[in-house]
Amino acid sequence: MIITSTELQNNFGKYLLLAVKEDIFISRNGTVIAKLSPISEVEGHPGLMRETVYEKQEDYSYIGYGKTASFEEFMKLRNNTDERIEYIDGQIYFLASPKRAHQAALVELFGIFYNTFKGKKCKPMVAPFDIEMKRTPENISMVQPDLMIICDLEEKLGDDDYYKGVPDLIVEILSKSTQMVDIVKKLDLYLACGVREYWIVNPWNQEVTVYQFKESTIQSSKTFKTNETIQSFIFDDLAVELNDIFER
Question: Where are the alpha helices (DSSP H) in the chain?
Answer without folding.
Answer: 5-10, 12-19, 71-78, 100-117, 179-180, 187-193
